[in-house]
Amino acid sequence: MRVEINADDYGLTRGVTDGIIKAHREGCVTSTTLMMNGLSVEYAVEQAKKNHELKVGLHLVLTWGKPILNNNTSLIQSNGNFKYTSSYRNMAPPLLEDVEKEWRAQLEAFRKTGLTLNHIDSHHHIHAWPPLVGVILKLAKEYEVPVRYADSLKDYPDICWTEKLWTEFYQDGVTDNLFEQLKKENVLSVEVMTHPGFVDEDLIENSSYLYTREKEVELLCEMRVPEWVQLK
């Protein structure tokens, strides 16, 4: 089984970035996805260029912080932050043309880093929101990059990075029996979504998912990878 262990939120804060790098260098994290509107993007890019085996993708954002473009008024609230939150499914969908413009700007900002774009996913899985599927399909094909699997994308296996997304390594599911659980899955490829990181002041101010990130770092560094796993 091909297993991709991806760390979300790269560049969100310096502490998160350091935790991801540690979980890669000393553990089993194989890839990460960069938030282009994060608080520590330049530092994250510098660290990625020092760790050439770490694959870096783009963590598309529409539900946290400020947009790359500041003229898409349909996406933002009065303070300039995105108006969408993790509860976006209860909100009216945005103008698709504005979403495409913003995500294209995030893709282009990633390109300017000089890093190779490995894949695309999104903060709070908003790329998989059915109203936005057409946008992500268009961008994935144009930029020739695979996208994180979601049920809303199951009819487009040609653009999906893996056959399945494992989301259980989160909160109370952060345990050391990850590979035992994965072995039960009847798929050839799976992505494990993780959120390792060290808690710093910026993270406390911007996220509700805190000290379990440090537990993730610890476990991802301690886990032994079974022989049946093709860790890519």
Automatic annotation (TrEMBL):
Q: What are its cofactors?
A: Mg(2+)
Q: Does the keyword Ligase apply?
A: no
Q: Which UniProt keywords apply?
A: Carbohydrate metabolism, Hydrolase, Magnesium, Metal-binding
InterPro entries, A to Z: COD_ChbG_bac, Glyco_hydro/deAcase_b/a-brl, YdjC-like
Which Pfam family is one of this chain's hits?
Answer: YdjC
Instruction: Write out the coiled-coil annotation as residue ranges.
Output: none
Put simply, this protein is called Carbohydrate deacetylase
Q: Please report the organism this UniProt entry assigns to the protein.
A: Oceanobacillus kimchii
